[in-house]
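Appendix C. Worked example: Protein TsetseEP domain-containing protein
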Amino acid sequence: MRVFAVLAAIALVLAGTVASSSVKELQLQLDELGREIEAEVQRKRAENSDAILATNSYVLRIMGNDTANLRDIVNNKRTELEVEQWLREPEAAACFDEAFQLWDTYAYLTGWDVSWCAVVAYEETNADAQYKFHSHAQTIVREAARAMTLATEAYALHPTLDEQVEYLQQELYYLAVLWGNYQAVLQDEIDGHEEVAEQIVTMTRTCFEGVYDDVDYWFNYLDNALDQCLAALE
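Step 2, the predicted output written as structure tokens:
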């Protein structure tokens, strides 16, 4: 890539094999490298955003399906209780009042558990979007902008031509090396997104599996309590 050509040219300068470079030439090289960095980071941002969007969409589908399934389980249990009460004698009303109180509690707790799973999924997907690739991209773009700005101020910052040339050579070398390193970092984040996505999906599924286990346990307890109360009436 162009960054390696820049590094090679600067190496020659620093080694003394290049007699001289004008300030304007170095400013132009810095400007071109800065623009290359901005364009490439933007392209990588788009690639990373597509990967994150795909993960978020999949996680939302999991949450939507499991939330609907759990809502159906809870509502069906209410319907079962209402049908069974209708089939029983009036003296069983006290047992069903207790059962409906338990159902109200468990329906609330199920909703709370589902909300907690949503929080977990949000925190993980938000961290994936904001604190990994994004932070690295911000750093290199900020450094490129800084170098481009200081390149235009070389005349004011350094009084002699030699000092200006040396300063710009150092800035160009620094930015080229930094960009070479950050290219690998950004690409590693993109390449590693599949593993991160799998972790997020697994965490979301595990959270909802815990909700299903809780609901199963609660409703088994409700059924046993109702059976014991009805048996005591016989």
